[in-house]
Amino acid sequence: MLIRRCAVLFVEPREELDIDWSSLFAGESALGATVRWIALAPHLGNEVEIGSDELQALGCISLTLWQERAACEQKSSAEVIARLLAHGLLLSDSPEGAAMRERDEVLRSQHWRPLSATAHMFSRWGDMRVDKGMQFPSFEELVESYGAPPQPAIERGAAIDALMLPVPARAGLDETLFKRYTGRNFDPVATLPLATAARLLQRAFGSQGEREMAPDAFVLKKLSPSAGGLHPTEAYVLAQRVQGVAPGLYHYHPVRHALEPLVAMDTTQTAELAMRMVADQDWFVDAPMMVVLAARVERNFWKYRNHAKAYRALLLDAGHLSQTFYLLATEAGLPAFVTAAVNEVDIERALGLDPLKDMVVAVCGCGAASGARDTVEMRYEP
Length: 382
Ligand SMILES: Cc1cc2nc3c(=O)[nH]c(=O)nc-3n(C[C@H](O)[C@H](O)[C@H](O)COP(=O)(O)O)c2cc1C
Known about the structure:
There is one protein chain. This protein is of the alpha+beta class. The chain has two domains: 2-110, no CATH class; 172-366, NADH Oxidase. Helix content is 32%, strand content 21%. The protein is built from 13 helices and 14 strands. The strands form four sheets. Strands 11-10-9-12-14-13 form a six-stranded antiparallel beta sheet, sandwiched between helices. A three-stranded antiparallel beta sheet has the order 5-1-6. Helix 2 crosses helix 4. The longest helix is centred in the C-terminal third of the chain and has 22 residues, at 310-331. The chain is globular and about 75 Å long. Flavin mononucleotide (FMN) is lined by residues 181-182, 184, 281, 338-341, 378.
């Protein structure tokens, strides 16, 4: 049997502090620290605790070259190699190892930067809910715990040297910019007109033209900027109450300007999924349309392969799209929202996405305001 190490692996010496009660009662220093080795391998997506002997063995096995298992066993031990294979940190060419090997191949094929893959796979939430520890501390509570936050604006250099700028004249974009705010009080029964949804999707996520930059290398022109012009972010729609659209999950096709049905649902199911997607932020759940922004990483990593800046670029791309979405909603007289506090794992499951290939970044949504101001909003009030 041939074996090799998984493509990406970081090992964290994780410290846990504990109190030794007998020392405490004896009046001695009672705080102890225990260090455990935690293996973070993005193709697994879950943490694995390993021993020092396993750590040692991992450092001696290539991630590129396939080696005879027996030779590796001689260098460490048969038990250690068996444990690492069972964890999926070592991979084999055997039929039993096929599933782990395949996950590792998927990771390799996407051209992830190792640290970025690790940050992505280990910052996802699954089933994060209020009863599982999701918290929404108010500013008052935060100040009580942490003291006042850093000042909202700072000065660099001497104030006397500052060049005072002219007051900007009112201009075309102002009306929309000043009206934009994050809505947290959506009308629970209002529907979203199809024409509004269609304009929003087309202008925020749709293609305004296609160009062949080189043979077989096509890019789309969209109304937000995108790193390398690649536009890797896909829009998946959760329609709760969009006129003429049956409740459920859809993929928005940016060229055909069409909603591709993925999962049909009843309204109880869409409401439950909406709540789960935004990790129990109930102030967003009444939005009649939500859009999941998920980057097809390979589209960006095709150019920016194993690239230090690529992961940032994916996050920035989604940020631009969400702002365009906000402005279009505002223009239509609707509040919008964006949130990064999402249950990626649940969203991936609902949409059938592989997190090594499709990176859920954020969820946005919009709809008519209810008129209530139960949950805080930051509307511009001159
Ligand atoms: C990346 C990002 C993540 C956000 N996440 C949340 C969130 O989880 N929950 C929420 O209520 N608002 C969220 N917001 C909205 C901000 O709270 C909001 O933009 C901010 O309070 C300023 O208010 P405004 O958008 O009305 O100007 C998020 C905004 C951004 C850009």
